[in-house]
């Protein structure tokens, strides 16, 4: 028997018990006064009046009981209909129009991302981009300048689904619009924040990393806006370091308060060095979060994956992190490795998640 039926049955039993008690009081009163009349102690009119009052009380109690049962039946009926409607909504299959709408939105979002990573002599780069659903709040981008420098951007919107995808497209467009005029990573973040801050409601923000790689000097200058630190690894030297440029997330504050928060960091990449940039979905391993070791689990998995070399490292890392478990957030991994004089492979970005059926 369901909890609703048990509750309803209990209410009916209580109502009927109240009616029975009221009726008993009425009968007891009438019988008592009848005995007094018979004994000649009380006058008949008083006894009749008392008995009448008892009957009236019983009638009122009966009316209340019937009204309560009717209200209970109506409440139970309404609750049953509500639960049925919820069940139908949960089991509802998307219409052809809804499927087409999601598919077209996903195709537009995919078109905004780079089709492949750029080629740099002496470097190997990979990107693994995995939306948690049909649409993503993560973004990444590359831009190669005429002097050979490479601009890297990686970001994570505070939201998922269509809303996150809209903000993602907006912020990525701002990065592209200001990349040509920016003097460096911090200046680019400042320009993007000026165009983004205050345009949306409270609680909407974006964390981002911007890297400017000079392949001739092998120096990467990083600017960050509330994002995770990057991971610097050298398998040959067994060295793992977290490097975190400081800065507030995009959209939280504007003007000088945001500009003053930005502190760039420069890294000189030695042969064999690999730099891993990632969004927070990488550390949100469902099984590990319950133990509170998501971050350390990720760092150990990253070191193990890159230990075998940069080529295919992100696939190894992904397979290790989510083997036997699901993801609960959008995830983007970006790897930049200095491989010395070897010719690096030109690998396209991994967008296998875009082939999900909707």
Q: How would you explain this protein's 3D organization?
A:
The chain is an alpha+beta fold and 358 residues long. The chain folds into two domains: 3-90; 99-355, PPM-type phosphatase domain (Phosphatase 2c, domain 1). Helix content is 46%, strand content 18%. It contains nine helices and ten strands. It has helices spanning 3-39, 44-90, 96-112, 161-178, 185-196, 255-261, 286-289, 294-307, 313-321; strands at residues 123-130, 138-144, 150-157, 206-214, 219-225, 230-234, 239-243, 265-268, 274-278, 331-338. The longest helix has 47 residues, at 44-90. The two termini are 38 Å apart. 32% of the residues are buried. Mean pLDDT is 76; it is low at 286-292 and 341-358.
Name the features.
single chain, 358 residues, five-stranded antiparallel sheet, 9 helices, elongated, disordered C terminus
Short account of what is shown:
With 358 residues, the chain is α+β, with helices and mostly antiparallel strands.
> In CATH terms, what is the fold-level topology of the largest domain?
Phosphatase 2c, domain 1
What share of the residues does DSSP label as strand, in percent? 15-25%
Indicate the CATH architecture of the largest domain. 4-Layer Sandwich
Tell how many strands the DSSP assignment holds.
Answer: 10
Task: Enumerate the spans where pLDDT stays under 50 for 5 or more consecutive residues.
Answer: 286-292, 341-358
Number of domains: 2
Number of helices: 9
Q: What pattern of helices and strands is seen along the backbone?
A: HHHEEEHHEEEEHEEHHHE
Shape annotation: elongated
> Mean pLDDT, nearest integer?
76
CATH superfamily (homologous) name of the largest domain: PPM-type phosphatase domain
Strand adjacency order, main sheet:
1-10-9-6-7
Major beta-sheet overview: 5 strands, antiparallel
The CATH class of the largest domain turns out to be Alpha Beta
